[in-house]
Amino acid sequence: MSAFHEQRDIASVSGSNELDFFSQLFSQAAWLPLSIFLLGGLYLLLMAIIFRRAAERRRKARMALGELPSQQPAPTPDTPVASRLSRFMQAARLPEPDLDLLLGKPNLPAETTAPVPVPSASPVAVAHEESLPVPETILSEPISLPEDAVEVMRIWRDISDGSLIIQIGDQYYRHSAAISNPEQKRRFEAVVRTLSAMIGLPSAPLPKPIAATSAPAASAPAAEPPKRGLFGGKPKPAEPEPLGGIADQIEEFLQARLLASPQFSTRSIHVRPTLDHGVRIEVDGHFYDSVAEVIDPDVREFLINIMREWEARH
Fold first, then answer.
1. Which domain holds residue 300?
2. Does residue 156 sit in the same domain as residue 53?
3. Half-sphere exposure of 299 toward its Cβ, with a 13 Å CA cutoff?
4. Is 260 contained in some domain?
5. For the segment 11-22, what is each residue's pLDDT rounded down to a tens digit?
6. Does residue 141 belong to any structural domain of this protein?
7. Which candidate among 23, 45, 134, 234 keeps its CA 20 to 30 Å from the CA of 63?
8. Domain total in the chain
9. Is 175 helix (H, G, I), strand (E, B) or coil?
10. The pTM is what?
11. Residue 50, pLDDT score
Protein backbone atom coordinates (compact mmCIF):
# COMPACT_ATOMS: atom_id res chain seq x y z
CA MET A 1 0.00 0.00 0.00
CA SER A 2 2.80 2.35 0.76
CA ALA A 3 4.29 1.77 -2.67
CA PHE A 4 1.01 2.48 -4.31
CA HIS A 5 0.69 5.71 -2.36
CA GLU A 6 4.19 6.69 -3.35
CA GLN A 7 3.50 6.14 -7.08
CA ARG A 8 0.32 8.17 -6.76
CA ASP A 9 2.14 10.96 -5.05
CA ILE A 10 4.79 10.93 -7.77
CA ALA A 11 2.11 11.02 -10.51
CA SER A 12 0.34 13.87 -8.80
CA VAL A 13 3.57 15.79 -8.44
CA SER A 14 4.46 15.25 -12.11
CA GLY A 15 0.99 16.29 -13.18
CA SER A 16 1.20 19.41 -11.10
CA ASN A 17 4.56 20.21 -12.60
CA GLU A 18 3.19 19.88 -16.12
CA LEU A 19 0.28 22.10 -15.23
CA ASP A 20 2.64 24.70 -13.82
CA PHE A 21 4.77 24.57 -17.01
CA PHE A 22 1.81 25.05 -19.31
CA SER A 23 0.35 27.72 -17.07
CA GLN A 24 3.64 29.61 -17.16
CA LEU A 25 3.87 29.08 -20.91
CA PHE A 26 0.39 30.44 -21.51
CA SER A 27 1.03 33.32 -19.16
CA GLN A 28 4.15 34.27 -21.15
CA ALA A 29 2.54 33.65 -24.57
CA ALA A 30 0.37 36.73 -24.11
CA TRP A 31 3.48 38.90 -24.37
CA LEU A 32 4.74 37.28 -27.60
CA PRO A 33 2.44 39.19 -30.00
CA LEU A 34 3.16 42.42 -28.23
CA SER A 35 6.90 41.86 -28.51
CA ILE A 36 6.57 40.96 -32.19
CA PHE A 37 4.56 44.11 -32.89
CA LEU A 38 7.01 46.23 -30.98
CA LEU A 39 10.03 44.78 -32.75
CA GLY A 40 8.31 45.07 -36.16
CA GLY A 41 7.38 48.67 -35.45
CA LEU A 42 10.93 49.51 -34.44
CA TYR A 43 12.24 47.84 -37.61
CA LEU A 44 9.80 49.72 -39.81
CA LEU A 45 10.63 52.99 -38.07
CA LEU A 46 14.33 52.45 -38.55
CA MET A 47 13.87 51.54 -42.21
CA ALA A 48 11.66 54.59 -42.78
CA ILE A 49 14.28 56.84 -41.21
CA ILE A 50 17.03 55.26 -43.32
CA PHE A 51 15.09 55.54 -46.60
CA ARG A 52 14.02 59.07 -45.79
CA ARG A 53 17.58 60.15 -45.16
CA ALA A 54 18.71 58.40 -48.34
CA ALA A 55 15.96 60.13 -50.33
CA GLU A 56 16.94 63.44 -48.77
CA ARG A 57 20.55 62.89 -49.77
CA ARG A 58 19.53 62.03 -53.35
CA ARG A 59 17.27 65.07 -53.53
CA LYS A 60 20.04 67.31 -52.28
CA ALA A 61 22.44 65.72 -54.74
CA ARG A 62 20.00 66.28 -57.62
CA MET A 63 19.50 69.84 -56.53
CA ALA A 64 23.23 70.37 -56.30
CA LEU A 65 23.71 68.89 -59.77
CA GLY A 66 20.73 70.81 -61.15
CA GLU A 67 22.02 74.14 -59.93
CA LEU A 68 25.36 73.81 -61.74
CA PRO A 69 23.95 73.44 -65.30
CA SER A 70 21.28 75.99 -64.48
CA GLN A 71 24.03 78.51 -63.78
CA GLN A 72 25.97 77.66 -66.96
CA PRO A 73 23.25 77.73 -69.64
CA ALA A 74 21.74 80.87 -68.10
CA PRO A 75 24.09 83.16 -70.07
CA THR A 76 24.07 80.94 -73.17
CA PRO A 77 20.58 81.88 -74.39
CA ASP A 78 21.69 85.46 -74.28
CA THR A 79 24.90 84.85 -76.27
CA PRO A 80 23.27 83.88 -79.61
CA VAL A 81 21.01 86.89 -79.36
CA ALA A 82 23.95 89.13 -78.63
CA SER A 83 25.94 87.58 -81.47
CA ARG A 84 23.04 88.00 -83.88
CA LEU A 85 22.61 91.60 -82.83
CA SER A 86 26.32 92.23 -83.19
CA ARG A 87 26.35 90.66 -86.66
CA PHE A 88 23.30 92.68 -87.62
CA MET A 89 24.92 95.88 -86.40
CA GLN A 90 28.11 95.07 -88.27
CA ALA A 91 26.16 94.32 -91.43
CA ALA A 92 24.22 97.55 -91.01
CA ARG A 93 27.48 99.51 -90.82
CA LEU A 94 28.76 97.96 -94.06
CA PRO A 95 28.47 100.13 -97.18
CA GLU A 96 25.82 99.20 -99.68
CA PRO A 97 27.03 97.52 -102.90
CA ASP A 98 27.68 99.77 -105.83
CA LEU A 99 25.43 98.70 -108.69
CA ASP A 100 27.55 100.65 -111.14
CA LEU A 101 30.50 98.42 -110.37
CA LEU A 102 28.38 95.33 -110.79
CA LEU A 103 26.94 96.50 -114.07
CA GLY A 104 30.15 98.12 -115.29
CA LYS A 105 31.78 94.89 -116.57
CA PRO A 106 31.94 96.19 -120.16
CA ASN A 107 34.93 98.25 -119.04
CA LEU A 108 37.01 95.09 -118.61
CA PRO A 109 37.09 94.12 -122.30
CA ALA A 110 38.32 97.62 -123.04
CA GLU A 111 41.44 96.80 -121.02
CA THR A 112 41.85 93.41 -122.66
CA THR A 113 41.77 95.01 -126.08
CA ALA A 114 45.20 96.50 -125.36
CA PRO A 115 47.12 93.17 -125.51
CA VAL A 116 45.21 92.16 -128.66
CA PRO A 117 48.19 93.04 -130.93
CA VAL A 118 50.11 90.12 -129.37
CA PRO A 119 48.22 87.45 -131.33
CA SER A 120 48.96 89.42 -134.48
CA ALA A 121 52.18 87.42 -134.77
CA SER A 122 50.24 84.16 -135.03
CA PRO A 123 48.53 84.96 -138.33
CA VAL A 124 51.97 85.55 -139.83
CA ALA A 125 53.02 82.03 -138.88
CA VAL A 126 49.73 80.66 -140.16
CA ALA A 127 50.27 82.42 -143.45
CA HIS A 128 53.67 80.76 -143.80
CA GLU A 129 52.20 77.38 -142.96
CA GLU A 130 49.39 77.81 -145.45
CA SER A 131 51.87 78.82 -148.13
CA LEU A 132 53.42 75.34 -147.95
CA PRO A 133 51.12 72.88 -149.72
CA VAL A 134 53.74 70.14 -149.59
CA PRO A 135 52.63 68.62 -146.23
CA GLU A 136 49.04 68.47 -147.46
CA THR A 137 50.04 66.50 -150.54
CA ILE A 138 52.17 64.20 -148.43
CA LEU A 139 49.26 63.48 -146.12
CA SER A 140 46.86 62.93 -149.00
CA GLU A 141 49.05 60.44 -150.88
CA PRO A 142 48.68 57.44 -148.46
CA ILE A 143 44.90 57.55 -148.78
CA SER A 144 44.91 55.59 -152.04
CA LEU A 145 47.07 52.47 -152.29
CA PRO A 146 49.02 52.42 -155.58
CA GLU A 147 49.03 49.33 -157.74
CA ASP A 148 52.77 48.79 -157.37
CA ALA A 149 52.63 48.74 -153.56
CA VAL A 150 54.37 45.81 -151.86
CA GLU A 151 53.87 44.65 -148.29
CA VAL A 152 57.13 45.02 -146.35
CA MET A 153 56.15 43.96 -142.83
CA ARG A 154 53.30 43.99 -140.35
CA ILE A 155 53.14 45.41 -136.85
CA TRP A 156 50.85 43.95 -134.19
CA ARG A 157 50.16 45.13 -130.65
CA ASP A 158 49.81 42.78 -127.69
CA ILE A 159 46.83 44.07 -125.73
CA SER A 160 47.90 42.29 -122.53
CA ASP A 161 51.13 44.28 -122.06
CA GLY A 162 50.93 46.88 -124.85
CA SER A 163 54.13 45.72 -126.58
CA LEU A 164 54.57 45.61 -130.35
CA ILE A 165 55.07 42.43 -132.37
CA ILE A 166 56.83 42.70 -135.75
CA GLN A 167 55.97 40.26 -138.52
CA ILE A 168 58.46 39.88 -141.37
CA GLY A 169 57.34 37.14 -143.67
CA ASP A 170 56.32 34.21 -141.48
CA GLN A 171 58.49 35.23 -138.51
CA TYR A 172 57.36 37.25 -135.48
CA TYR A 173 59.68 39.37 -133.31
CA ARG A 174 59.16 41.51 -130.24
CA HIS A 175 62.41 43.50 -130.66
CA SER A 176 65.08 43.96 -133.30
CA ALA A 177 67.69 42.02 -131.32
CA ALA A 178 65.65 38.84 -131.82
CA ILE A 179 66.04 39.02 -135.61
CA SER A 180 68.79 36.49 -136.34
CA ASN A 181 68.61 36.68 -140.12
CA PRO A 182 70.90 39.53 -141.23
CA GLU A 183 68.87 40.16 -144.37
CA GLN A 184 65.63 40.51 -142.40
CA LYS A 185 67.35 42.69 -139.82
CA ARG A 186 68.76 44.97 -142.53
CA ARG A 187 65.34 45.13 -144.15
CA PHE A 188 63.72 46.00 -140.83
CA GLU A 189 66.28 48.73 -140.11
CA ALA A 190 65.79 50.19 -143.58
CA VAL A 191 62.02 50.34 -143.09
CA VAL A 192 62.42 51.94 -139.66
CA ARG A 193 64.74 54.58 -141.09
CA THR A 194 62.22 55.31 -143.82
CA LEU A 195 59.43 55.62 -141.25
CA SER A 196 61.53 57.96 -139.13
CA ALA A 197 62.18 60.05 -142.22
CA MET A 198 58.43 60.21 -142.91
CA ILE A 199 57.78 61.34 -139.35
CA GLY A 200 60.52 63.95 -139.56
CA LEU A 201 59.29 65.46 -142.82
CA PRO A 202 56.50 67.68 -141.41
CA SER A 203 58.58 68.77 -138.44
CA ALA A 204 61.39 70.15 -140.58
CA PRO A 205 59.54 72.93 -142.45
CA LEU A 206 57.62 74.15 -139.38
CA PRO A 207 60.51 75.76 -137.43
CA LYS A 208 61.81 77.52 -140.54
CA PRO A 209 58.96 80.04 -140.94
CA ILE A 210 58.70 80.52 -137.16
CA ALA A 211 62.38 81.24 -136.62
CA ALA A 212 62.65 83.64 -139.52
CA THR A 213 60.40 86.08 -141.35
CA SER A 214 59.98 86.67 -145.05
CA ALA A 215 63.75 86.74 -145.61
CA PRO A 216 64.29 82.96 -145.30
CA ALA A 217 61.16 82.36 -147.34
CA ALA A 218 62.77 84.27 -150.18
CA SER A 219 66.08 82.48 -149.73
CA ALA A 220 64.48 79.01 -149.80
CA PRO A 221 63.26 79.13 -153.39
CA ALA A 222 66.51 80.78 -154.41
CA ALA A 223 68.41 77.74 -153.10
CA GLU A 224 66.22 75.20 -154.91
CA PRO A 225 67.24 76.03 -158.53
CA PRO A 226 70.97 75.47 -157.94
CA LYS A 227 70.21 72.07 -156.40
CA ARG A 228 68.29 71.01 -159.48
CA GLY A 229 71.01 72.28 -161.76
CA LEU A 230 73.76 70.48 -159.81
CA PHE A 231 72.20 67.02 -159.59
CA GLY A 232 74.74 65.62 -162.01
CA GLY A 233 77.66 67.26 -160.18
CA LYS A 234 79.16 67.47 -156.71
CA PRO A 235 76.03 67.73 -154.50
CA LYS A 236 75.25 64.07 -155.19
CA PRO A 237 77.88 62.50 -152.89
CA ALA A 238 76.86 64.87 -150.09
CA GLU A 239 73.21 63.71 -150.11
CA PRO A 240 73.71 59.96 -149.53
CA GLU A 241 75.63 60.55 -146.30
CA PRO A 242 72.59 61.14 -144.04
CA LEU A 243 70.53 58.49 -145.84
CA GLY A 244 72.28 55.38 -144.57
CA GLY A 245 72.49 53.29 -147.78
CA ILE A 246 68.84 52.70 -148.80
CA ALA A 247 69.07 54.68 -152.02
CA ASP A 248 72.52 53.26 -152.71
CA GLN A 249 71.21 49.71 -152.42
CA ILE A 250 68.37 50.43 -154.84
CA GLU A 251 70.80 52.18 -157.18
CA GLU A 252 73.17 49.20 -157.22
CA PHE A 253 70.32 46.82 -157.85
CA LEU A 254 68.98 49.09 -160.61
CA GLN A 255 72.33 49.39 -162.38
CA ALA A 256 72.77 45.61 -162.28
CA ARG A 257 69.40 45.17 -163.95
CA LEU A 258 70.17 47.91 -166.49
CA LEU A 259 73.32 46.08 -167.60
CA ALA A 260 71.26 42.95 -168.23
CA SER A 261 68.54 44.86 -170.12
CA PRO A 262 69.50 45.78 -173.71
CA GLN A 263 66.47 48.07 -173.97
CA PHE A 264 67.54 50.40 -171.14
CA SER A 265 71.29 49.81 -170.92
CA THR A 266 72.05 52.93 -172.97
CA ARG A 267 69.73 55.21 -171.00
CA SER A 268 70.59 57.20 -167.87
CA ILE A 269 68.30 55.87 -165.13
CA HIS A 270 69.30 56.37 -161.49
CA VAL A 271 67.83 56.41 -158.00
CA ARG A 272 69.16 59.37 -156.02
CA PRO A 273 68.84 60.06 -152.28
CA THR A 274 67.53 63.37 -150.97
CA LEU A 275 68.32 65.42 -147.91
CA ASP A 276 64.94 64.56 -146.37
CA HIS A 277 65.83 60.83 -146.46
CA GLY A 278 63.67 60.29 -149.52
CA VAL A 279 64.35 58.97 -153.01
CA ARG A 280 64.29 60.76 -156.36
CA ILE A 281 64.22 59.16 -159.78
CA GLU A 282 66.50 60.42 -162.55
CA VAL A 283 65.63 59.51 -166.13
CA ASP A 284 67.82 61.03 -168.84
CA GLY A 285 68.50 64.16 -166.79
CA HIS A 286 64.90 64.62 -165.64
CA PHE A 287 64.08 64.17 -161.96
CA TYR A 288 60.88 62.81 -160.44
CA ASP A 289 59.77 62.52 -156.82
CA SER A 290 58.18 59.09 -157.33
CA VAL A 291 58.03 56.30 -159.85
CA ALA A 292 54.44 57.17 -160.75
CA GLU A 293 55.57 60.60 -162.01
CA VAL A 294 57.89 59.15 -164.67
CA ILE A 295 56.54 60.18 -168.08
CA ASP A 296 57.97 57.31 -170.14
CA PRO A 297 55.61 54.34 -169.61
CA ASP A 298 58.30 51.74 -170.43
CA VAL A 299 60.73 53.22 -167.92
CA ARG A 300 57.96 53.55 -165.35
CA GLU A 301 56.99 49.88 -165.74
CA PHE A 302 60.65 48.87 -165.58
CA LEU A 303 61.19 50.84 -162.34
CA ILE A 304 58.03 49.37 -160.80
CA ASN A 305 59.34 45.86 -161.45
CA ILE A 306 62.73 46.83 -160.03
CA MET A 307 61.14 48.17 -156.83
CA ARG A 308 59.00 45.07 -156.38
CA GLU A 309 61.94 42.77 -156.91
CA TRP A 310 64.12 44.75 -154.51
CA GLU A 311 61.43 44.70 -151.81
CA ALA A 312 60.94 40.97 -152.27
CA ARG A 313 64.69 40.35 -151.91
CA HIS A 314 65.09 42.61 -148.89
1. 131-313
2. no
3. 22
4. yes
5. 565 656 666 766
6. yes
7. 45
8. 2
9. coil
10. 0.28
11. 94
